[in-house]
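Task 17 of the worksheet. Students: predict the tertiary structure of the chain below and write it out as structure tokens. Keep your answer in the requested format; marks are given for formatting as well as content.
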Amino acid sequence: MNGSNMLISTKPGALETTNTKLAAALSAVGIPLNKTVPVRLLAGENGRTHCFFFQEKSPCGDYITIDLMRAWDDKEWHRQNPEHPFAYLKVAFDNMERLTDYVRSGTPIGHVTKGKKIGFLSLNASDTAQKIFFKELNRHS
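Model answer:
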């Protein structure tokens, strides 16, 4: 259940998620858990999961919870904001998943550095995948 940004409530502006990675990222930028109900254990078809409830913004006011929750899986937001601290957190979690998959599968990977950017690419990547990878790496360098 951590793979997607699942908002439990259908109310506009819901500040809750069952995505543990998203919850960790929101906490990392300083958005506090809700004081009244910080976390709730939910029972579902696939077992139990935790739902995390957040306050509206960080104490400094720089980070608005609902905006970051919407940005989490928004590829366009990440393209437009590659240096945003929240974008770095998302990339860190994505890299962790990719590296774990590479280790489990035994797929050889290459490590590419350009300026301040670092990327990992499967040595078995198709020509198309390589072109996309280097295009994005060059765009953000």
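Marker's comment: Residues 3 and 16 are 15 Å apart (CA to CA). The first helix runs from residue 20 to 28.
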